[in-house]
């Protein structure tokens, strides 16, 4: 194993920023104008739908790229076995727990709002585990909900581990740090091809696997990021331009033309990822009390935020009809209640760990984890 690398704080900070962005994103989904189902769907709104299309091309793809970069850093100080055990602990076990606790709540709210379910939450558990439909949960059936990310990332991490093992065996000296900017830009062409592989409910395993591998082998290289950072303003302008085109083609055109909006989406995705990594390295590579706090809470924010957003929307729609008010209430309320829940979860875990340590007669302090999804 290589020496322990210096921590890239901008990667941690981009991660929690993307996770916080999920709160307004998931709140806005209640007003998507293309008829996609949701746990709470109120009505179509083109402005909120445009916001969704401005950020959706790049924010989840960036999460997989960041996971690939983090995995590369982790493999410098862990064996294959240690990495596998860590993935099980950090991804698979929370996924299993979430499928038994968080996802049933969301499915219950969806069934009540969309189907008028009148039973209580505990009786709905039977519906949740027996009603297998499209796995989106909007109809009250079984769903991984937003925890699909943990499932995909666990699978992709294990596949990526196998690819890394083969690479170390057959191409032990592989190095991508000298790849030029033109080739980096052309990597965008891999995305539409990868998107055709193992598409499950509009989420392609192949697409996110390629992004993870690009993070692991290409964007984890400091020389590559430094090269990208020199063009960060141009890349940000291109990303914004293609995001606006994607929103226009999909939301505002009377008849969306698939080749146009998908082309804009893939270009917005790749240029957005590059721009954010370049700007992150330059402006967001900070380690202070606020960034450390948000880093340690980011995983919990990811787990709990969507539940609070839809719970607020489900109840608020009974009293408020103004779109702006509903959106702001669901975003602000969702953010505050999520942070409160995160604090309860964080300190409960801390107390539990102290009890375990005392039982083991171990006086060494427990290091606070960063709480990241990587």
Description of the structure:
The protein has helices spanning 9-28, 46-55, 59-74, 80-100, 102-115, 124-130, 148-170, 181-186, 190-194, 205-219, 222-229, 232-252, 258-283, 289-316, 323-359; strands at residues 199-200, 203-204. A two-stranded antiparallel ribbon has the order 1-2. The model is unreliable at 363-369 (pLDDT under 50). 69% of the residues lie in helices and 1% in strands. It has 374 residues and is mainly α. The radius of gyration is 21 Å and the shape is globular.
- Give a count of the beta strands, DSSP E runs of length 2 or more: 2
Question: How many H/I helices?
Answer: 15
Helix content: 55-70%
Overall average residue pLDDT: 91
Q: Major sheet: size, sense and barrel closure?
A: 2 strands, antiparallel
Low-confidence stretches: 363-369
Structural class: mainly alpha
> Order of strands across the widest beta sheet?
1-2
Radius of gyration, taken over Cα atoms and rounded to an integer in Å: 21 Å
- Overall form: globular
Order of helices and strands: HHHHHHHHHEEHHHHHH
Strand content is under 5%
- Termini separation comes to 19 Å
Q: Characteristics of this structure?
A:
mainly alpha, 374 residues, 15 helices, 69% helix, globular
List the helices and strands and how they pair.
Layout: H1 9-28, H2 46-55, H3 59-74, H4 80-100, H5 102-115, H6 124-130, H7 148-170, H8 181-186, H9 190-194, E1 199-200, E2 203-204, H10 205-219, H11 222-229, H12 232-252, H13 258-283, H14 289-316, H15 323-359
Antiparallel strand pairs: 1-2
């Amino acid at each position: 194993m290589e020496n322990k690398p210096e921590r890239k704080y901008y990667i941690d900070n981009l991660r929690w920023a993307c996770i916080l962005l999920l709160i307004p994103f998931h709140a806005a989904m209640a007003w998507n104008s293309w008829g996609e189902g949701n746990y709470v769907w109120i009505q179509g709104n083109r402005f909120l739908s445009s916001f969704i299309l401005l950020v959706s091309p790049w924010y989840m793809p960036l999460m997989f790229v960041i996971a690939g970069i983090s995995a590369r850093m982790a493999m410098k100080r862990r064996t294959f076995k240690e990495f596998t055990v860590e993935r099980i602990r950090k991804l698979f076990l929370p996924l299993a727990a979430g499928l038994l606790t968080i996802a049933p709540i969301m499915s219950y709210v969806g069934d009540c709002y969309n189907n008028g379910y009148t039973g209580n939450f505990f009786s709905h558990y039977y519906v949740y585990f027996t009603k297998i439909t499209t796995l989106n949960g909007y109809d009250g059936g079984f769903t991984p909900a937003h925890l699909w990310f943990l499932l995909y990332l666990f699978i992709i991490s294990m596949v990526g581990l196998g690819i890394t093992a083969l690479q170390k065996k057959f191409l032990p000296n592989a190095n991508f740090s000298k790849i030029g900017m033109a080739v980096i830009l052309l990597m965008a062409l891999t995305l539409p091809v990868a998107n055709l592989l193992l598409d499950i409910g509009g989420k392609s395993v192949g697409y996110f696997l390629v992004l993870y591998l690009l993070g692991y082998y290409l964007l984890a290289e400091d020389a590559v990021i430094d090269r990208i950072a020199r063009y960060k303003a141009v890349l940000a302008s291109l990303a914004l331009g293609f995001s606006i085109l994607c929103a226009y083609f999909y939301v505002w055109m009377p008849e969306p033309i698939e080749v146009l909006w998908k082309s804009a989406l893939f270009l917005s995705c790749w240029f957005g990822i590059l721009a954010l990594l370049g700007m992150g390295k330059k402006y967001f590579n900070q380690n202070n009390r606020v960034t450390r706090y948000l880093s340690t809470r980011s995983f919990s924010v990811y787990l709990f935020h969507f539940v609070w957003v839809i719970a607020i929307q489900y109840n608020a729609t009974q009293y408020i009809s103004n779109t702006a008010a509903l959106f702001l209430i669901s975003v602000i309320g969702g953010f505050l209640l999520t942070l409160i829940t995160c604090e309860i979860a964080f300190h409960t875990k801390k107390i539990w760990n102290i009890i375990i340590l005392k039982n083991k007669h171990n006086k060494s302090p427990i290091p606070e984890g960063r709480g990241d999804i990587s």
